[in-house]
Amino acid sequence: MPAKVFSTHVSKQLKNYVYRLIDPRNGETFYVGKGKGNRVFDHAAGVKMKVIDDDSGLSDKHERILAIKNAGLEVMHVIHRHDLSNDVVLEVEAALIDAFPGLTNTQAGHGSNSKGPMNHLQILQKYELPELDVAIPEKLVLININSLEIRHDRKVIYDQVRFAWRISAKRVQKADYVLAVVRGVVVGAFVAHEWLLATRKNFPDISHVDELDDTRYGFKGAEATSDVWKRFVGSDGKRVIHEEMKHIQNPIRYWKV
User: Fold this and answer.
1) Is it true that the peptide bond before 164 is cis, omega within 30 degrees of 0?
2) What is the Cα 35 distance to its own chain's centre?
3) What is the pTM of this model?
4) Which domains are delineated in the chain?
5) pLDDT tens per residue across span 44-54
6) First vs last Cα of the chain: how many Å apart?
7) Which entry of 8, 103, 127, 223 is 20 to 30 Å from 116 by CA?
8) DSSP string, 156-201
9) How far apart are CA 194 and CA 202, in angstroms?
């Protein structure tokens, strides 16, 4: 039978590695991770299955592993790259996460929100845009949203940025503005009048809201004034250059909050 663990000698040769977990029922990659030693075996076996942060049940990854086990099968896995430095392993993991849509990973890859997949027009647009001033006295919440086909549609931007996030309710309520960010570019500036739990009762106008989600929040608000919008967004967006404002994996970033 194939080894279920790596020996100490093999582990030393592998060092940092990036792996994929694969569903044997359809050949689909459902998780990408990084690790050392026998982490890949532990993950494939579902060792220490834990509920997700909101205590509502197993994570999507562990539900998938459990379904595979219940089918009498074992999770397949591939070591994609090994013998990697601490910096390189993050980049390789992020690139693979970007390359496989529909993964059960709960977070984006390192730097994916700012350096992830873009076509040449998006790259040109991003790096030709003016920079966001780093001397900002206001308290901000910067939220990374999905890619936008039309960055000038303020209604679409507002609907994406206002719902629904795992955030610190105490911190966001102190913020002066909420900035919508796409691939490291600020595309919208809004004032949150009220942060509420992301439930159907609180957001009846959003059709995909679950009946109850007491771990995520959304806000009701409005566009910032024209002078504020000009300062943060300009005509086509402004590039985030301050490291403390850049999104790494978490879609939420706080500034002076």
Assistant:
1) yes
2) 19
3) 0.62
4) 8-110 (3.40.1440), 120-255 (no CATH)
5) 988 765 544 44
6) 55
7) 223
8) HHHHHHTS-B---HHHHTT-SEEEEEETTEEEEEEEEEEEEES-TT
9) 11
